[in-house]
Every structure is written in C-alpha cells, then in structure tokens.
Amino acid sequence: MDAVGTAQQLADDVLFPAALATDAADAAPAELLDALADAGLYGIRAEADFATVCAVQEALASGCLTTAFLWAQHLGLVHAIASSSDEALRSTWLERLRRGDVRAGLALGGALPQPTLHATASEGGFVLDGVSPFLSGWGLVDVVHAAARTADGEIVWTIVDAAEGDSLRVDRLSLVALNATVTVRATFDGLRVPADRVTGRHPVGGGTPPEGLRLRAALALGVAARCCRLLGPTPLDEELAACRAELDRLDPATIAAERAYAGELAVRAAAALMTATGSRSLLLSDHAQRLAREALFVLVYALRPESRAALLVRLGAT
User: H-type helices in the chain, by residue range?
Assistant: First the structure.
C-alpha cells in the first residue's frame, strides 16, 4: 500500500471537499474517520516507518485538520501497544486498534511540565486523580490513552474507557478552531485502572523527544501546504520544502526551533491566502478563514517551552 498516496487522495477527494462542513459541525462526521480506517491508516504506526507516518499526517492535515487531528490522537496508543513486549496486551488490543474497530483519544495531563493528572499505585493497578485539560474526540473514541504522574516522578500510561461515570467526568470546551473534535476537560476522581491496562511506565525527564515534535510539526506543514496549493506558486513553496527537510533531520539541537518555524510558516501562509483572496476570505463559506484559524491552532497546540521561546523570537515578541 502506498500510504502517502492513499492519504493524499483521501485528503483531496474526501476530506477537503467536506472540510468547511466538518469545521461547522457539532462533531466531526464519523464517516470521515471510517474512511481513514477503511484505507488502513489507523494502524500505520504499527506498520510503516516514521518518515511515512509524518508524510501521511501532513497529507491528511492538508485536507481537513479536524479529521487528521482526531486520527493522530489514536496513533500513540497503537505505537505503545505495537512496541510492547507484553503479549497479552498486544493480543487484546493491537488488531482492533489497527483496524480502527477500537479508536483512542489522548489525555496528557500527567505528561505536562506541571502535571495535573496523578497516579497512585493500588492493589492490582493504579488510581487516577486530577484533570486532563484537553481530551479530544469525546463521543467519537472508545478508549483514552492517559498519562498520569506518580509521586516519585514516574509517568504511567494507561488505557481508560471513554465513558462518563462517578470516577470520570467531562466538560466540553469551545474552541476557535477544530471545535468539531469535541474536546473536553476530563476530571478523574479515584478512577481505578487494572494492571493489564498499563501500556508503559518511564521516568520524567529529557523533554519532548524529536519524534514527538516532528509529528506535531506535520500538522502545521499540512495546513501550510494546503494554503500554498490554493495560492499557486510562491516563494512560500521553497520555505515549506526547506522547513520539512530540516525537520526530517530530527536534530535534537534544532528540532524545537523548527517546530516553531513550521507553526509560524502556517500562519504566514494562511495570512497570505486571506490577503490574496480578499474580503471574501472573511466569509465562513471560504476555506481561507478556516485555514487561518487552523494555523493559529497548530501554532500553539502542545507548545513546549523551547518551541515557545523560539516562536516568540520569530514573532519579534522578545
């Protein structure tokens, strides 16, 4: 399967034509996510090399960032299960996740620099307490891959059912872009997670790995790429290619700044598209305004301190 070609075809023929309607919807249409599952893309982090995953993510984001973002939240759990040495965990979850029969969201409260979701060891597993401020896909996902922090500084990753109850409550958030991702603030109150739903444990430290920053940048590159296509040939095309090539080096010394550059480039490309389009770009029926709001989203989404500092320099705000 040519995963990148398949993703680009889906982006151009399915996602982009529906992107304005998706953007305005209360929740992303399930049939768009089904199309990605039917194309075999839900299991890509278990099947393809990292460069292919990045290219697929960029391609999908160029079609509809809302749909691509929901799909991207699923990939972390696929990767965790596929790389696990726990055969019981793999046999229980991997095939269903690869097919998209079970779909996953992501709760990062325990992985934040100032953790907000905490894990306490208990007999037979862990108890989760606290909040995860942003959890996307509520009502569209079946489980949540949740990161929680222990008192001794370990991050514990668990699989939690995406269902409200006495121990898990959610409050929907209103977003300026990607509102159809149905993003919520999740509150965990003594939620028990059995040991067979723990996908990994590791100490805090080292910051975000280059691969994590590269994947986030792929979303920004996708938004910028669609703006460039709608603009026609401009010097922004060369900037986009250069930014992508530098990100692909995965250089720990430069990746944070390049992730910032990708976001800033998306904003400039969207601003150029709105300018070229003119006042019509202010209409909600025009793709330019959608892409401009999506560019703001990728500019600040999951922004870590090093990238934030580099971005503020690029924006002339330091």
Answer: 3-10, 16-24, 30-38, 44-47, 50-63, 65-82, 87-99, 210-231, 236-248, 255-277, 287-300, 305-314
What is the number of alpha carbons within 13 Å of residue 15 lying toward its C-beta?
30
Pick from 258, 214, 217, 218: which is nearest to 55 by CA?
218
Distance from C-alpha of 224 to C-alpha of 235, rounded to nearest angstrom:
12
Degrees, nearest 5: CA angle 104-50-204: 65
Strands 104-107 and 143-149, how do they pair?
parallel
List per-block mean pLDDT (blocks of 10 residues) for the chain, which spans 318 residues.
Answer: 94 98 98 98 96 98 98 97 96 98 97 94 96 98 98 96 98 98 98 97 85 97 98 98 98 96 98 98 97 98 92 93
Of 310, 302, 69, 104, which Cα lies nearest the Cα of 177? 69
The pLDDT assigned to 213 comes to 95
How far is CA 88 from each of CA 75, 93, 170, 197, rounded to the nearest angstrom? 20, 9, 30, 10
Q: Supply the Cα-derived Rg of the chain in whole angstroms.
A: 19
Sign, Cα dihedral of 243, 245, 246, 251: positive
For residue 297, the number of C-alpha atoms closer than 13 Å in the C-beta half-sphere is: 25
